[in-house]
Structures are given as C-alpha cells and as structure tokens.
C-alpha cells in the first residue's frame, strides 16, 4: 500500500464537499484507477466525470501513469483563468 | 542584457506602468499588452446575464510552474521577444477591473509581439490551473474551460 494526498479544486471541491484528503491505495494504482476510486467514494462526481482533469505532483500525466508513493494529486475541472 | 521576465499570481492590482518599465530594454521599441477585464454583461445566445464580480482560485504552486512554462514556450516560438510579463490576479475582482495581463516587448512591432501576447493568454487559459466563479444577482457558477491538457503539457 502507498499513501497519496488528494486536493480538489473549484467546482469539484463544491461537489465532493472535500478540500483535501489522504488515501492509502494499492501499489500498482494508476491515475485512472485513482479517479475511478474517487468517483466510487464521491458518487456525485459521476455526472461530470468526462471533464475531470488530474495532475500528479503538479504535472499532467497519462491515464496509465502509476502513481508514486507520497504523491500529491490534484483533481479539477478544465481551467478558466484569464 | 538579459531578457526580463515578470510573473505573478496574487490579489494585488496590476501596476501597468511598473510592469511596462520593467520589461522595457534600451533596445525596446514596441510592446503589446493584453488585459483581461471582468465583464458585467454577457450575451449567451441572445440572452443577457449580469455579473457583479469574479472569484478566482488557483493551485498556486502548479500555476506558477505552468506560467513559467508558458513564458518558455513564448520565447521558443518568438526568439525576438525581449521582455515578457504574465500577471494573474486571484481572489474577488469587481466588474470593470483588470484580472490578468500578458505583455511582450521587442525592438519592432513586426517581430511577433502581437502573436506572442495572444499565444500567452491562450495558453494561460489552457494549461494554468486557475478557475473563476461568476457571481451575479441571481446566480453563482464556476466557469469551466474547454481544454484538456495532454500529458507533458
């Protein structure tokens, strides 16, 4: 098992009601596994799962990227700065 | 002389004069400055809705890294650009107030400064993790962009 930190931003924080949390996940968990796990934990995410973006340690990574232990994963909608 | 870069992500108002001075070199003869402003009235499919303020939130550390990346991308594409400034305000900003600034300087106007400034604001809206919530008299909604960043972007 490995520990990861999850941070939610903007509308996804409102939907989950959660700002950040720590999770213990299996060693071979990749990014898409983790998002599936979060959707299971917060079923309201299901309605907008097609727009969920995730970063791993502040970088955009492919879905099959295996998450390193102690990573910081941010979960957010498409950005809208400017 | 080294080409100056100024970036910031803070609630502070944008100081146009100071920024322009800081990215102007003795060789500079042109500058293009893009400024984003909080729009009070938006027309969506012929329906008007009102905004009173915007609330900006950022994933601070990643946003600063991605702004630096946007600057690098601008410099790679337009080698003649001299100074670059990218400023994004966060927190609550009232209608009519500046929210963001992208500024480029160069020796002449035909060096790519216009394109570089446009590229800068376009990329900021694609890959920099900042979000805004539109607050109006009757509703308050998070704005979602349209871009899905590719791995490595």
Task: Provide the fold topology.
The complex is a heterodimer of chains A (82) and B (153).
Chain A: E1 2-8, H1 10-16, E2 20-25, H2 31-41, E3 53-56, E4 59-60, E5 72-76
Parallel strand pairs in A: 1-5
Antiparallel strand pairs in A: 1-2, 3-4, 3-5
Chain B: E1 5-10, H1 16-22, E2 30-37, E3 41-44, E4 47-50, E5 53-58, H2 60-77, E6 84-89, E7 91-94, E8 98-106, H3 113-127, E9 130-135, E10 140-142
Parallel strand pairs in B: 1-6
Antiparallel strand pairs in B: 2-8, 3-4, 5-7, 5-9, 6-8, 9-10
Offer a concise description of the structure.
The complex is a heterodimer of chains A (82) and B (153). Chain A is 22% helix and 29% strand. Chain A has helices at 10-16, 31-41; strands spanning 2-8, 20-25, 53-56, 59-60, 72-76.
Describe the structure.
- The complex is a heterodimer of chains A (82) and B (153).
- Chain A has 82 residues and is an alpha+beta fold.
- Chain A is 22% helix and 29% strand.
- Chain A is built from 2 helices and 5 strands; from the N terminus they run βαβαβββ.
- Chain A has helices spanning 10-16, 31-41, and strands spanning 2-8, 20-25, 53-56, 59-60, 72-76.
- In chain A, strands 2-1-5-3-4 form a 5-stranded mixed sheet.
- The termini of chain A are far apart.
- The mean pLDDT of chain B is 97.
- With 153 residues, chain B is α+β, with helices and mostly antiparallel strands.
- Helix content of chain B is 26%, strand content 37%.
- Chain B contains 3 helices and 10 strands; from the N terminus they run E-H-E-E-E-E-H-E-E-E-H-E-E.
- In chain B, the strands form 3 sheets. In chain B, strands 1-6-8-2 form a 4-stranded mixed sheet, with helices on both faces.
- The longest helix of chain B is centred in the middle third of the chain and has 18 residues, at 60-77.
- Chain B starts with a strand and ends in an 11-residue tail after the last strand.
- The radius of gyration of chain B is 16 Å and the shape is globular.
């Amino acid at each position: 098992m490995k520990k990861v930190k999850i941070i939610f931003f903007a509308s996804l924080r409102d939907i989950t009601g959660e700002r950040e949390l720590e999770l213990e996940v299996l060693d071979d968990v990749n990014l898409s596994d983790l998002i599936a796990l979060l959707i299971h934990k917060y079923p309201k995410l299901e309605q907008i799962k097609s727009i969920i973006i995730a970063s791993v340690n502040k970088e955009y990574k492919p879905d099959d990227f295996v998450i390193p232990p102690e990573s910081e994963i941010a979960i957010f909608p498409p950005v809208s700065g400017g | 002389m080294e080409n100056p870069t100024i970036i910031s992500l803070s609630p502070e108002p944008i100081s146009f004069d100071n920024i322009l001075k800081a990215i102007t070199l003795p060789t500079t003869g042109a500058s293009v400055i893009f400024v984003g402003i909080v729009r009070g009235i938006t027309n969506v499919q012929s329906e008007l809705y009102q905004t009173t303020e915007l609330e900006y939130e950022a994933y601070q550390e990643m946003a600063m890294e991605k702004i630096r990346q946007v600057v690098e991308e601008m410099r790679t594409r337009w080698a003649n650009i001299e100074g670059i400034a990218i400023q994004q305000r966060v927190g609550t900003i009232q209608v009519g107030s500046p929210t963001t600034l992208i500024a480029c300087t160069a020796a002449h106007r035909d060096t790519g400064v216009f394109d570089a400034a446009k590229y800068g604001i376009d990329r900021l809206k694609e890959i920099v993790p900042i979000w805004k919530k539109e607050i109006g008299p009757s509703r308050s909604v998070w704005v979602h962009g349209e871009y899905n960043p590719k791995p490595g972007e």
